[in-house]
Amino acid sequence: MRSDATGPEERSPEGWLDWTTQRQALASDPACSAWVSANAGSGKTHVLTQRVIRLLLAGCRPSAILCLTYTKAAASEMSNRVFEKLAEWATLDDTTLEKRIEAIEGKRPPTAKIQEARRLFARALETPGGLKIQTIHAFCEALLHQFPLEANVAGHFSVLDDRAAAVLLADARRALLTATAAASDGELAEAFATVLDLADDTGLEKLLAAIVANRAPIQAFLDHASGRGGMEAHLRAALGLEPGETAGTVMAAVWPLAGLNGPALDDYIDLGLRLGGAKPSAIADGLRAVRAIDDAATRYSKLVELFFNGGGKPKAESAFLNAAMRRAAPQLELRVEEARSHMLACVDRLSIVQMYGATRAALVLAERLSPRLRSAQEGTQPARFRGSHPPHGGTACPKRRRCLGALQAGSGDRPYPRRRGAGYESRSVDDHPVARGGFLCRRNGACGRPHDLRRRRREAVDLFLPGSPAGALFA
Question: The pTM is what?
């Protein structure tokens, strides 16, 4: 039977079952680094459970094993399987337990290992905090609780779940609407009017939710723009708009039309009404009516109807000139093309101005919403994983007694600090197939120079990631 991933030589159900069992035993061997990818229901959680048990049988301390999952359900399922297996071993007789261990490891265990297997359940229960089988979010939360100074978060924060976030958003939105009613903040009222004009109440709700979800990059942009002339100047420069350029100035610049103005417009109207078919004569009659309109916005709207179809696309040249008009006045062809290009440029320019207005309105709402949301958050002291600012107004003080010592380059080392005595120690895995980079050293004393931990003892730490669509196992 081949040991590669192409499958067994004997393509029978028995052959596939034996091959799968062999591959699962290889993946659960703690001496091997493995990546497991398989379909749902194919036994990934079983393999991970076997690997944890084999690590415990090999003498690994329960506190040195970390299992990370994507969902709480996966963490609960894996924890239940491990403890059910260990609890069962505590009550089995020697012969049955010997067969169970032999089935897992592929060899007959010594008597000492059988006795040790009986004590694994008690050891796992007595481990402070129990086996570390948890979600990625729970693991990150635990790290923040252990290192609040290094992470610049409040020491007794609470996680902001979806329901609490919705309540905070509602409170911040209510405060924002209350501020809009005040006559002193006309800019905020104008921003609300712009947003409601472009979208209904549902659109406003979606915009506020998007602002909250992206408040960190939005705040970074506002801070960046404040040092470069302000938000308006920065937006105008980015969109290529001139100072003072508005929708009104763009619509006013549409008339007179480039190419079709003065005597050329008179000739086109006269020729279109005499020789044009249905479409050219309608456009000529429309241009004659537009010439009498004084309001720039109304005139712009009529011109858009003449030069563009219902779908917003420019009308074809044949809609402006037929064969008879071309023969009678061939010079009008270039003038009509110039007028069409002029209208297209003005419509594009107005779209950019409108984009600027909508973006500016959204940023004004974000600028007003951010401090109110931050104030509501500080009232409940939740963990702010996005857009979090240092509580002390800056970076960590380099003279603190408990400090972040160094982040050095190593050979496949991963941060995994563990309390030992007065300081912390890094436990890492050499030649890890995925983890490359540096290691974390956290010790007492001021930050003076990088602390070299290469001489410290290193132990294997398993990192499990079950519960993903394909499943994954790191060792």
Answer: 0.53
